[in-house]
Amino acid sequence: MNLTEKDTASFSPQRRQLMRQLAALGMSSGVPGLALAQSAPLQQDPWRQAERIIATLSQSLQFRAADYPVTHYGALSCTVRKVAAWISFEEQGMLDTPDEHAPDCYQAIRTAIETCHREGGGRVLIPAGNWYCAGPIVLLSNVHLHLESGAHLYFSHRPDDYARYGEVDCGEQGRLTVSRWQSNDCLNYSPMIYANNQENIALTGADWSSVLDGQGGVPFNDYGDCWWTWKGKLKTINAIAQGSVPNYREGKPSENAVNPLNVGSLRQLVVSISPQQQALIQGAGDKWRADANYLPALSEAAVPLAQRVFGKGHYLRPPMIQLISCRRVLLQGYEVRNTPFWQHHPVNCRQLVIRGVHAKSHGPNSDGFDPEACDHVLVENCTFDSGDDCIAIKAGKNLDTQFGPSQNIVIQNCTMQSGHGAVTLGSEMAGGIQHVYAQNLLFENRHWKTNPLNTAIRLKTNLNRGGYLKHFYVRNVRIPNGVQTSPSFYSSLPGSPIQSKTVATAAGAVITFDCDYTPVSDNVRIRPPVVENIDISDITVGNVQTARGEFSCYQAIVILGPVASDYNGSAPAPVIHPVRNVRIHNCDFGNPVAADAPLYLYNVQDLQLSEVKIAGKRYHQRYSA
Length: 625
What we know:
By secondary structure, the chain is mainly beta.
């Protein structure tokens, strides 16, 4: 759908001004269509391509030999005090936070970065000590921001501090930043560390005592609300942990509650929208007006970025670190903790390395690393201890696919602790994902008794998210403490051939391909995904002692292909392809609880198991279901 002159004629003067500002920033005021990428044939030796990607990214970034300590620009360290705060979905503890009148280093850090950039680049230094920053750090080309050993940078936990300094004046909603939230473009609260269209940038720490602290669980009002409260009511409840949201009670404002600031009809924004399209996007009732649903609806209706204004009065939490359209990026050697939302979210970046980072946040949606529509990415020697997926590769959602696919990504020598999925692809993948290589990984699952890893290797998509996954290769993975040994089921749509709460796609399997991910959450279901050419080998899964016995998982493999009955577009329906050409070999899945039914397969063509051991039984067989 394209905007007409009739549509834009209805824009307010403020919205027209926003569009002019966005144009000056090089941002499109419309929504480009899907950028398709052709997939190469199945490679004879895919790991040679992985070696080429690693070699391409092995060269160090170069910076001018000049240091800019933030203390030279007025930064003062602070003292800290203990406060009661949330440390996970369900736990509270005493955490350090800056004293109430701590000096704000925002301006000093900004001036140091801008001076370094203006003078040709170099290194901006944050020394050892406690530092408080009540606003975003914006990285610029040729700047290397480095935290020395013992430097602990506390970002303000007050949302309004991230609606003060953005590049776009949105009136009552604040000064906002061009951002992307769950793979949809928007104007929103600024991420705590941000860059847009920069090159040759680095964010590093001396070691894991160099801490970037988002304070996501520290209360910001007298009611005890924090960033994490804004998650609102959970749609999917894990069988073991994550059954509630910090300080949330029914009726509190959140991303999942109807927001009266959002328009009552899409026709108020796009006057040319047809009644049929409006009904499809909005669905039944008013739920589409909750912020988390409203933004995807704006994308489906091709509403321009200038009208996707969130910020103050809205409840979309920003990612901790977001880099958009950047080139030659290094993230290395620090610890990030307690982030409001996703921990690292690079979008449309090229030649990006994340190395030796400790990503530790147990709050809602605390994904460790979410590269989106990125090309040539290396993830190595990192440890992920996450409240959501450890790594989740993404590529746009709804009509926001202008940046194309995520591709040429290598993940190696990393350790994963708690989380939903250790290595995940999706769920937002409308632009496609291809040529991903994961090797030499330890899914340690240290917290298996209380907060276990839900699943190890995970694909998430559906007839809304669509897209494709092609050429995904995994080898040499150790999972000594298994994954969650109880099932967490998904809810199917009315009329589905699959009964709700019978398939353990949410948690419980070692390998999960879920092509019907939370279908009840998406009104528009017109884009069938394509999933093919996947090779997984040398996975070793250990057992743990539970009250019921010694088990490694609930099931070994769950492959739920696309469900054709979910389609709700116009006739004729497109072809719904099965998951196809998947090879799993040289693996030992330990002892599943459901040893009598270790596999669940639906709409799968040519799954090949060879030298696969499950509960002591060896499998050499091809399956189609």
